[in-house]
Amino acid sequence: QVQLVESGGGLVQAGGSLRLSCAASGSIFSINTMGWYRQAPGKQRELVATITGGGSTNYADSVKGRFTISRDNAKNTVYLQMNSLQPEDTDVYYCYAGGILDVTGRTLLGSWGQGTQVTVSS
Question: 6-29 b/e with 16+ CB inside 10 Å = b?
Answer without folding.
Answer: bebbeebeeeeebebbbbbeeeee
